[in-house]
Amino acid sequence: MAFRLSKLNKYNDWLYLLARLLVGVMIGVHGLQKFGLFGGPGLQGFADFAGVAVWLAALQGLLELLAGLSLVLGLWPKVGAAFGVVAMLAALVIGHFPKGPNPFTNGGELALVYLAAFLMFWVCGARKLSVDAKLK
Hints:
- The chain is an all-alpha fold.
- The chain contains 7 helices and no strands.
- The chain has helices at 12-33, 42-50, 54-73, 77-96, 103-106, 109-124, 131-135.
- Helix 2 crosses helix 3.
- The protein starts with 11 loop residues before the first helix and ends with a helix.
């Protein structure tokens, strides 16, 4: 009996929710690490590592945290995804591209994957299983 991908259609909303939760939790934890939680270096440590001012480290952490919370809750996910896009573009331009254009040698592959995910969430929004859907 052949497996048909069309059978997965009934799970689209649940798979989308899973993707939203995974990306949201992971990027939120990245943001919290910049504030010294979950084994992170803290603002000064991240600022020194990235070669940026402490206020930029704080802004990056805040953007990542807000993007993560927005995706996890499904509350204003397009806004949260826009924050994520800005944060990942900043990470690539400031932290990775100065080390070279190749993401496999400059450490930017994860930022590119997050960027792609945030662009998808920016276009698609929260969909059915979200706080946004319940508010409408």
